[in-house]
Amino acid sequence: xxxxxxxxxxxxxxxxxxxxxxLTKNPRWLLMRKVSRFRIGRLTRDFFNRKNKYVYQKNVxxxxxxxxxxxxxxxxxxxxxxxxxxxxxxxxxIVKEITNFAHSHACYGYYKPNLGFFYHxxxxxxxxxxxxxxxxxxxxxxxxCPAIKRLQNxxxxxxxxxxxxxxxxxxxxxxxxxxxAGDTTNFEKMKTFQMFHYDIDDYRFLKFFFYxxxxxxxxxxxxxxxxxxxxxxxxxxxxPKCETDEEIISYYQPKSLVTIYGKAGxxxxxxxxxxxxxxxxxxxDRLMLQVEFGTIDYNMQHDIxxxxxxxxxxxx
Length: 316
Hints:
Helix content: 25-40%
CATH architecture: Sandwich
Shape: globular
Number of domains: 1
Mean pLDDT: 91
Strand order of the largest sheet: 1-9-6-11-5-4-2-3
Distance between the termini: 24 Å
Largest sheet: 8 strands, antiparallel
Number of helices: 13
Low-confidence stretches: none
CATH superfamily: q2cbj1_9rhob like domain
Order of helices and strands: HHHHHEHEEHEHHHEHEEHHEEEE
């Protein structure tokens, strides 16, 4: 019954669910979600937070960073202008360590702690749980994978975040997930972030994305809309929802859409207040990592779960 309501009335359901989660878990987070979508809300928050401005360290010790050749000013200027910067690439040994982790630890269908399985068990898991999985993610990634822990503490990424956010960055989350190849319905596209949307995780926040599989036109490339972090229709702000390709193209024009391809290890920074989406992989599953920084940790984004509540096919 609930599934039918979600599929038939996704927007009212999502609004009610957000309000319920916010009121029961963190009303401060819910207030931020309502206010920060408007420029006046972000400016007001910046005004009251002006005493906490952070002087970032531009002279990073490149020997301790995985990205010694990245120019911080170039990245931040591109973020401010376009909402993204392409080409923050992982060393091969880091890619290998994270992919090995993904194959040797259980992932969880739609990030549900009771739907665990190993990647190679996907078909068996779908039979076991009697549902089709289009997405599965991992929990406790920084605790279990040193390479991911190193990324969230990388001095170059922290410096980029500090300069872009104009404050001392706070680590909000890591997300490592599979998007599985195959046809998807519109409802499945909404569940797997494959329709245009923008995120509201903080008043200011920044995400770094890394492909861990090769991503070409049929491999599920990420798409973002250039400049849409600064320009939105009033209706987009008043009623945040997933938008169709036709709506986005009509308002922003086709030339504003940027489709991001890359080999395993290719990375990019993004201001997720811009419109963006994933696309459906056709030929192979896509593994992707996200590392997020903001100004306040509302304890709503992280992937930390008590191992005792995590269930896989073996122990369910």
